[in-house]
Amino acid sequence: MAWFKRTQKGIQTPTEQKKDVPKGLWYKSPTGKIIDAEQLENNFYVSPEDGYHVRIGSVEYFKILFDDNKFKELDKNISSKDPLNFEDTKKYTDRLKAAQEKTGLTDAVRTAVGKSKGKDLVIACMDFKFIGGSMGSVVGEKIARAADYSLKHNIPLVIISKSGGARMMEAALSLMQLAKTSAKLAQLADAKIPYISLCTDPTTGGTTASFAMLGDINISEPGALIGFAGPRVVKDTTGQDLPKDFQTAEFLKEHGFLDFITPRSELKDKINLYLDLILNQPVR
């Protein structure tokens, strides 16, 4: 039994001297592919082996789309109130405060204006990490104001959707944003100012039922989940088995709901190409 006994003490490191590997050095995609975090960032947060597009937010999209990451943020300090005095397991005001402290955001969308390939562009980008990218009154108001800015200055608009749907804590006030944002986009259409909708993973609920599907050109990143209700809800409601890849970007493009699927590495070039085509300008 001596075989199973340690005869010499190995190198012993005191607990206080042990160091864990810092978190965030590596990323593992859903298919099990491992990628260095720095390499992932340099590759537009796309896993090079399987093409998986990691969820990112407004900070990353602004960096990708605006020239030299230079932009002016619009309506930065607008934040939600609690007119309905919503209280479930936690007060809405407390949840808002916690989300703001955790994310550094005031709400689930940021709007900004800057140059993209040398041309003026207004971008409204949703952040899923703020209460699931839910659409409340502030989201609707900021998108409406971004559309107003586009109208006033004759600048194209891009909205990047990433949302779980309407914000239940604002009830009907949240649902009113569907009509509000749709009306503003109709004004853009009347003024012949281009609007491109980029659907990312996930784009669901009231967002899909309003501005996300109203673009002059509707585009998406590969593999994005896009739909109104979730697949499980749809299956339980209809009692039918769902087709393969149901509610993926590829499925929607095949059935005519999307115009193009654009990898993130080509996003800036393709958006500007689409804008040039809409405006009938020479392609840069």
Give a short account of the largest sheet.
7 strands, mixed
Low-confidence stretches: 15-22
What's the number of structural domains? 2
Q: Percentage of helical residues?
A: 25-40%
Summing up helix and strand content along with how strands pair, one would put the structural category as alpha/beta
Strand content: 15-25%
How many extended strands? 9
Form type: globular
End-to-end Cα distance: 77 Å
Determine and state the CATH class of the largest domain.
Alpha Beta
Q: Give helix and strand order, one letter per element, not per position.
A: EEHHEHEEHEHEEHHEH
Which SSEs are present, and which pair or pack?
Blueprint: E1 26-28, E2 34-36, H1 37-42, H2 58-65, E3 71-74, H3 92-103, E4 109-116, E5 119-126, H4 137-153, E6 157-163, H5 171-190, E7 195-203, E8 217-220, H6 231-238, H7 249-254, E9 260-261, H8 267-279
Parallel strand pairs: 5-6, 6-7, 7-8, 8-9
Antiparallel strand pairs: 1-2, 3-4, 4-5
Helix pairs in contact: 4-5
Question: How would you sum up this structure, described in words?
Answer:
Belongs to the AccD/PCCB family. Pfam families: Carboxyl_trans. GO terms for molecular function: acetyl-CoA carboxylase activity. Component of the acetyl coenzyme A carboxylase (ACC) complex. Biotin carboxylase (BC) catalyzes the carboxylation of biotin on its carrier protein (BCCP) and then the CO(2) group is transferred by the transcarboxylase to acetyl-CoA to form malonyl-CoA. It contains eight helices and nine strands. The protein has 284 residues and is of the alpha/beta class. It has a seven-stranded mixed beta sheet, with helices on both faces. The protein has a two-stranded antiparallel sheet with strand order 1-2. The longest helix has 20 residues. The protein starts with 25 loop residues before the first strand and ends in a 5-residue tail after the last helix. The relative contact order is 0.11. About 3% of the residues have low confidence.
